[in-house]
Design brief:
The chain has a five-stranded antiparallel beta sheet. The chain has a single domain, classed as OB fold (Dihydrolipoamide Acetyltransferase, E2P) (Beta Barrel). It is globular. It is mostly beta strands. It has one helix at residues 62-66; strands at 2-10, 23-29, 41-45, 55-60, 77-82. It contains one helix and five strands, in the order ββββαβ. Helices cover 6% and strands 38% of the residues.
Length: 87
């Protein structure tokens, strides 16, 4: 699991059926202190819980595909949790 901040939204007219009701966000990876870490990436939000400006936990690779209720989706990153604060 990785920590990130949602910095934008991606709009797609055509999507595969697994992503039809799923929003796509641009996520900037961050360290626990909030400083940027690496390059932004596009992450699916299968539970439609995030919004621009939110701090989130995201997963990549096989874990991202398993974040969907169907257990599979053609994604490389998925948002799985909102973060209230980091201690």
């Amino acid at each position: 699991m990785k920590l990130g901040r949602v910095i934008g939204q991606v709009w797609a007219v055509n999507k595969v059926h697994q992503l039809k009701s799923c929003r796509l966000f641009v996520v900037q990876p961050v360290h626990s202190d909030g400083h940027q870490s690496g390059h932004p990436l596009v992450a699916a939000d299968p539970q439609n819980m995030a919004g621009v400006g939110d701090r989130v936990v995201y997963v990549t690779n096989t874990d991202a595909a398993q974040a969907f209720d169907t257990g599979t989706a053609p994604v490389n990153a998925a948002i799985v949790e909102l973060v209230d604060f980091v201690d």
